[in-house]
Amino acid sequence: LFVADFGNHKIRRVEVATGSVTTIAGSGESGDADGVGEASEFRYPTEVAISADGSTLLVGSNGGLRQVCAAAPPPPPSFAPIV
After folding, report:
1. Share of residues in the chain with pLDDT > 70 (%)
2. β partners of residue 73
3. Which of 18, 38, 45, 60 has the lowest tally of Cβ within 10 angstroms?
4. C-alpha span between 2 and 18 (Å, rounded)
């Protein structure tokens, strides 16, 4: 379950089974800074949607609609050299 934490300018994930809460994005400061995870900033977020693969959030706030990386992308695969 993803929650737009309006007053704290954050996006949170709630594990329904345990009640555990994790901040996914938002520094807690009101603003429009882009960034990964807690380096990003929102102005009173009101809506949140997540991409099918879980890597991208779409967040609606007083600053408009923003796309945010929920996590840093994985590194590219490494390949063994051809001998």
Report:
1. 83
2. none
3. 18
4. 14
* Per-residue pLDDT at 7: 95
Number of helices and strands in the chain (H, E) = 0, 6
- C-alpha dihedral, 38 to 43 to 46 to 52, nearest 10°: -40
* SS3 state of residue 81: coil
Alpha helices for 1-83 (secondary structure H): none
pTM of the complete model: 0.76
C-beta separation of 32 from 43 below 8 A: yes
The predicted structure's pLDDT at residue 30: 93
Would you say 27 and 41 are in contact if contact means Cβ atoms under 8 Å apart?
yes
Q: Which tokens belong to 61? A: 């706030």
60 in Cβ contact with 68 (< 8 Å): no
Place of tokens 């709630």: 14
Token duo for residue 83:
């001998």
